[in-house]
């Protein structure tokens, strides 16, 4: 059942209707819980930014308590909570801690992307249940939504572990929060225009989970696995079997006395690419989160590549010191990405043009132990043959030049970089 069908079904079984108001910040003076009325909210209000609400909006609903405590106070027996053992592949607990340390990014729709293989969303929700007129507040529901994502270098698969955690509630005397529900509803799509021929993604058998708060509180986690079937090794025939797909999630919430909360569309969104590109990507097949930033970091204090690093630093920050020289010169890579090239012919053309430029400036350097270093790299679309002269060449120590090339190739293979994939360069002191 998809999310739209689920929401329609929920709406039909609702005994009375209300709306849920999303709050992101809430502070007020504590008072006894009671129905709160005001005349400012229009009929059917669904979301109101907390900063736009009057201070009295939460009067009587400013003392939420943990759901387990609320349930016990309403005569429900305590149920043992799910063990804290990691239910996810990989080191989920470590990723969750890092995610919490990147709270601003983690609460966005895409979440915090640690790498092309790890993603994490921790998104807090603070909801107030209202009647349909928007004049009476029935209760307050707070929780954290988590979605941990793992892509794989070596497998056309992506795993997500979703959860509703840290549930806090407060309800007016006539409202029963033990009957409130929250739902997570996953769906996916395939971008056929960007994918290779016959793109396929197989969804998990269960993509919807809608539960009472008590069930979420005792068993918060559930897992989903998406896979893209392949036809074997076809990369030598030019078919990398790339599949660009999006996995997204909608959130629903409601109670027997409220209409379902339907403003939770696309609260999580994950862009994925499956491929079977062969050795050019390192392991022959795999999956990546395409919106993750890939960055080549080199240090001017690293004796193995200090000359390469200094050359790149000058090209990015002091282009007037680099050749070819022209007024207003600027070079991409810091804010404007570079894009990988895998065609050996194009790479060689870039390299030969750069060598010619080195000879124009320094003459014949054969036998000197120096080599012509180029930036942007020969293996990028922004290389010297692009035609805009936004490149730099410099003679540097041969081993340093080769070690810099090795570092670049490591970035390509460790991140499954295919032709046209973007990346950035950062030089540290």
Automatic annotation (TrEMBL):
Keywords, in A-Z order: Signal
Domain spans labelled Deoxyribonuclease NucA/NucB: 350-425
Name recorded for this polypeptide: Deoxyribonuclease NucA/NucB domain-containing protein
Database matches in InterPro entries: DNase_NucA_NucB
Native source species: Streptomyces chartreusis
Pfam families assigned to the protein according to its UniProt record, in alphabetical order: DNase_NucA_NucB
Annotated signal sequence range: 1-33
